[in-house]
Amino acid sequence: MRAHLGDQLVVESPATGAARRDGEIVGLHHEDGTPPYDVRWSDTDEVTLVFPGPDAHIHHLEHEHSGAAREPLPDTHETESVFTAPRSARAANPGDIGRRVGVERRRQGLSLGEAARRAMMSPDYLAYLEEQPSDPSLATLIRLADALGTTVAALRGGGMDLPPGQGHALLHPRLRNLAPEECRTLLSTHGVGRVAMSASDGRPVVVPVNYEMVDDAIVFRTAPDSVAAAAAGTEVAFEVDHVDDAMSQGWSVLAVGPASVVTEPEAARKLTQHAHTTPWAGGDRETWMSIRPTSLTGRRITPADQ
Q: 226: which strand partners?
């Protein structure tokens, strides 16, 4: 017995041949499609691990869109229609879970095929989850979380609106200062940091920005009339950090130095061309700012025995 994701497992009464129970196969435990399977039963919507007996058989699902052929399972020669529409016909409208799966997969540097192989599902099914609003089963989420090195709660967006650091402190924490070279290494990961400066009325202001590290300078894009742009010619502070809630540890880096506007057109063009991300805030943010640190400090919290 071999199955694809999306196929139907039908359990029949040996005496009458009448269907007794059926469900969708939502998870495979072997790459060749052999049992056991994670099955979502149609009568209860529950997912259970099933070792099919002699009274069970597989109904290979045929989809109304038959423009693409299903890839055969290893060591078989069957070719059947994929259970989803051809990729060209899919709407690029992923749900929240699909977006998080896609972002985490790309963050890990995994191709669609490699991530699907690790999660023991077909690439076409993974593409479907990433591209379409969907409600994958718990078994599927567990397998995806394991393949992507994250958690089911993270894929579901649990804790999305909570600030980091909600966990308990370590029993024996160790707080150590970071050397400048280690601070530069942590800064070079780019991402989101915070610029602290004085506003025109003298009040302190902290602004989050998407930043890059180019040579020894911290650069970010902003609007020409923004608070951050007005900080040109003044000394500012820039902070970036990472918190690991699960392990109750993390680090922070603080850079202090003069801010300036990148006025050379060719330099600004190269920064735009090689930027890892566009500003999340959107809008007209084509003014590049540069901070050249004159002071670079950092701290890391780890267990005392590390």
A: none
Cβ of 249: how many Cβ atoms within 10 Å? 19
For residues 84 and 125, is the Cβ–Cβ distance under 8 A? yes
Locus of tokens 């076409």: 124
Amino acid at 263: T
Task: Give Cβ neighbours of residue 185 (< 8 Å, ≥ 6 apart).
Answer: none
What is the average pLDDT across 280-300? 91
Burial class (CB in 10 A: 0-12, 13-18, 19+), 91: exposed
pLDDT digits (tens, 9 = 90+) for 83-142: 333 333 333 344 678 888 988 898 889 999 999 999 888 888 888 888 877 777 778 888
Order of strands, edge to edge, in the sheet holding 37-41? 47-50, 37-41, 19-28, 8-12, 56-59
Could you tell me the two tokens for 59?
């109904």
- Residue 28 binned pLDDT confidence (cut-offs 50, 70, 90): confident
Are 286 and 269 a contacting pair, CB within 8 Å?
A: no
pTM: 0.54
Contact 46, 26 (CB under 8 A): no
Amino acid type, 260 = S
Q: 41-75: string of b/e by CB count within 10 Å (b at 16+)?
A: beeeeebeebebeeebebeebebeeeebebeebee
For residue 206 the two structure tokens come to 């902290």
